[in-house]
Amino acid sequence: MGKKDPRVDAYIDKAAGFAKPILKRLRAAVHGACPEVEEDMKWSFPHFMYKGMLCSMASFKEHAAFGFWKGSLVVGDTSKNAEAMGHLGRLTSLADLPPKTVLARYIKKAAALNDDGVKVERTAKRASPKPVRVPPDLAAALNRSAAAHKTFSAFSPSHKREYIDWITEARTAPTRERRVKQTIEWLIEGKARNWKYM
């Protein structure tokens, strides 16, 4: 037996007027086609779980969206994900939804893929991070302090950039000098640039 989540009820209640009937129909379709589905809130919008991620729905100011976790295997070439998040395109009224039988067929296919343990190949590769360019004044200060240099070298590129951006965004030379000095002090203590918020 499936499980409904009251947070999904609250999500639907807060949705724009046009979206409420769309979300209600989508929810009913998922539960009808996959009675064992369980609801959850992930990334602040409703997801339906059945032996892993099955599908999700979302509401925005002017449209709603619905998508499958393994969408390319479920809807294939009929996907409208170029129009909006999800695979059914921009949903602004019930008329934008596929016929109930087609929607049920999609949901059953998605559930069958999860039953069979099918995995979707993710083809997009992450771009390698851009090299971090250390400004000369910071490089010189780092070379004068082994402790600061060691801390800075161990940071991820994003943590290094936080310090570099802070230094290079200074509007005056004295401010920049103060920031380089403060950077070295914090690095000696092993602190990231935004350590106060961590």
What does this protein look like?
This protein is 45% helix and 11% strand. It is α+β, with helices and mostly antiparallel strands and 198 residues long. It folds into 2 domains: 6-115, Aspartate Aminotransferase, domain 1 (Alpha-Beta Complex), CATH 3.90.1150; 136-197, no CATH class. A hairpin with a 4-residue loop joins β3 (53-59) and β4 (64-68). The longest helix is centred in the middle third of the chain and has 16 residues, at 100-115. The two termini are 42 Å apart. The relative contact order is 0.09. The mean pLDDT is 87.
Task: Produce a short descriptive summary.
With 198 residues, the protein is of the alpha+beta class. The protein folds into 2 domains: 6-115, Aspartate Aminotransferase, domain 1; 136-197, no CATH class. It has helices spanning 6-14, 19-33, 71-74, 100-115, 136-143, 146-154, 157-168, 173-188, and strands spanning 38-42, 45-49, 53-59, 64-68.
